[in-house]
Amino acid sequence: MPFLHPNWPVQRAFRRAGAIGFLVASICPASAKNPAKDGPRVEVKYVVPEAAIDAASKALELPPDPGETRSVTFYDTAALQLFERESKIILRARHPGTHAAAELTIKVRGTVPAQDGAECEFDLVVGQPKRSLACTWKDESVSVPSIVSAGDSTQIGALFAARLAQPFQQVAGKPLEQWKLIAFGPVEGVEIWKFERDWAPVEITVERWKLQREGKPVKLIFEVSMKVPPEMEEAAVKALTQKLGKPAGADGETKTKIVLEYFRK
Q1: SS3 label, residue 134
Q2: Among 203, 244, 263, CA closest to 48
Q3: Would the CA dihedral through 196, 132, 55, 193 be positive or negative?
Q4: How far is residue 127's CA from residue 43's CA, in Å, rounded to a whole number?
Q5: Helix axes 53-60, 233-244, angle to 10 degrees
Q6: Average pLDDT estimate for 210-218
Q7: Tens digits of per-residue pLDDT, 135-158?
Q8: d(Cα 243, Cα 105) in Å, to the nearest integer?
Q9: Cis peptide leading into 186, omega within 30 of 0?
């Protein structure tokens, strides 16, 4: 079975595509802050240390009200057998807290089996030494009540099996029903802002998560990100670090890891 790897031909293909996309954008630019989205992308993420969130909010001139809120739940085994793999597998459900559209996703970071229907990009967490390939499969036909009511392993497996059984088995090596999945969360009221600033090369996205569970202190996650073509990756990292400083104390952790560890029993 063919595999994709961050340092193998897919990366060279992404680079070639990025060069072509840059040439096209130069001739027919989409906009200064929202470059064309039909080429390869790198999502540059900066996780602000909890003690620095207030200062970061002021530095970003964060608007008072978020444009969107979500409820987010992750799923894994109690021992995090999916996330702890060399190629991490992340199962997630999210919805706006109403009966509007909900979404299930399977995301794989690392070496990814070639698979039709996946959306792939690179992730770079500021503070980590290199970016990783991330491929995502989505089911946007799921209902909010089915997510809320999925309380045990059988129900969680059935939730994802409706449309995502095949890609899951291909990346995990065995079907959903053979994994004892539990919920990590939900995290309610995740706040999301999208805005532009003169110092940023593209639109900025900010997510603020408030983790709460009985017997543990409240924990906040504050992530600032930009999605850019590969040739703008360095500029995005520079803009974030100049505005927010070196992410000392965050150690390049992803918000997914922080949430899983927080809700782990």
Answers
A1: strand
A2: 244
A3: positive
A4: 14
A5: 120
A6: 96
A7: 999 999 999 999 999 989 999 999
A8: 32
A9: yes
d(CA 34, CA 82): 34
Residue 228: partners with Cβ closer than 8 Å, 6 or more residues away: 35, 41, 42, 44, 201, 202, 235, 236
pLDDT digit string, tens, across residues 3-25: 444 444 444 434 434 443 433 33
Mean predicted confidence (pLDDT) in 208-219: 96
Contact 162, 146 (CB under 8 A): no
Of 77 and 27, the structure prediction assigns the larger pLDDT to: 77
Instruction: Quickly state the pLDDT bin for 120 (edges 50, 70, 90).
Output: very high
**What are the beta bridge partners of residue 69?**
191
What token pair was written down for 243? 């505005």
Residue 163 near residue 174, CB atoms below 8 Å: no
d(CA 73, CA 105): 11
**27 band by pLDDT with thresholds 50, 70 and 90:** very low
